[in-house]
Write a structure and sequence with these properties.
two-stranded antiparallel ribbon, 12 helices, 331 residues, mainly alpha
């Protein structure tokens, strides 16, 4: 099945590249990047397919079984901009013109030093393509868990990641509501891990795509859970919503200090093993504690922290928070 999909994807990639991308690249005078453009075509195609699937499946579900009514009519549209930039716009360009050549150079240097990257498939002789896919899926998710948990541990990092958590109207596009700097760090981190354990490029494309689709489901405004057993096997919208809960999901017992629960990206087993799981069966309100108005000792009310309404203001305020939190850490 995986091979069949890969074959069809390869045919579509070749057609799109030859008829649209290649002529455009040469017309713009970027012929020296033709190889990167061919690789980028695959990610572009995957991104379009993902957007189509999400809109056709998750959008109707949000309309049929929503968790909450939207208080901000711009919320879904703003997050959609992030998703388009990440999946078919800015991020494919960043990945294929910077990260891929960098990783290729690193791999070449390692081979020159007679170092062969670990290939998990070689430790399991005779493993099927599907089996290899599942092994890499689990290993990469383990490292993703620790990356995600680290973004909640260091104050300067949380300042960036807080942009993602500031969405009080979570929806199917909210997965990609991340600061560009935070996304780039994660892409580099996951790419290096994949290179280190021997993931093939075609496998990596599929692993990333499956992960992104599942994470879109987790963030969707849908009243869905996977049952008593299923909640232990795969992160559901209800389980992940608890991670976004105000004063719970990313703070320690509502005290405003960093901590939280349900850091698993795809597999709750990591939260279970490392004691960060919270299976409370509720669909909670989302956001960050300091967004809420705070009562003052003198009787007044202090407005909540502003995280920005649009793409550029959200990015600028995140950078300001990063500097602010870093200064507090250094005092």
């Amino acid at each position: 099945m995986i091979q069949l999909f890969s074959d069809w994807l390869g045919l579509a990639q070749g057609w799109l590249f030859e008829t649209v991308i290649q002529p455009l690249v040469f017309q713009l005078g970027f012929g020296e990047f033709i190889e990167e453009a061919f690789e980028g075509t695959e990610w572009l195609l995957i991104g379009v397919l993902e957007l189509t699937l999400l809109f056709l499946v998750l959008r109707p579900l949000e309309a049929a079984i929503p968790v909450h009514k939207f208080t901000d009519p711009r919320a879904r549209w703003n997050d959609f901009i992030y998703t388009v930039l990440h999946r078919i716009g800015l991020f494919p360009i960043l990945v294929f013109f910077t990260l891929d050549p960098l990783l290729d150079s690193a791999a070449g240097m390692l081979r020159f030093e007679s170092f062969q990257p670990l290939n998990l498939e070689s430790l399991l002789p005779g493993i099927s393509p599907l089996g290899a896919f599942l092994v890499y899926f689990v290993v990469l998710d383990f490292f993703d868990y620790w990356y995600h948990r680290a973004s909640h541990h260091f104050n300067w990092w949380w300042a960036l990641h807080g942009l993602h958590h500031s969405q009080q109207n979570m929806n199917l596009w909210s997965d990609n509501r991340n600061h560009l700097l935070d996304d780039m760090m994660r892409d580099v981190y996951m790419g290096v891990i994949a290179l280190g354990i021997g993931v093939e490029p075609s496998q990596y494309v599929m692993l990333v795509s499956v992960s992104r689709i599942l994470q879109s489901l987790q963030h969707a405004n849908v009243r869905i859970h996977f049952g008593k057993v299923g909640e232990w096997l795969l992160v559901s919208p209800r389980y992940h919503r608890m991670h976004h809960a105000i004063g719970v999901g990313h703070e320690s017992h509502g005290q405003g200090t960093l901590g939280g629960c349900n850091f698993a990206v795809l597999l709750p087993i990591w939260d279970i093993i490392f004691r960060t799981a919270n299976f409370t069966p509720r669909f909670v309100a989302t956001g960050i504690r300091d967004q809420l108005p705070q009562a003052q000792a003198g009787g007044g009310v202090k407005p909540g922290r502003e995280y920005g309404k649009g793409f550029f203001s959200q990015h600028w305020l995140a950078l300001k928070r990063m500097v602010e939190y870093a200064r507090k850490d250094s005092v």
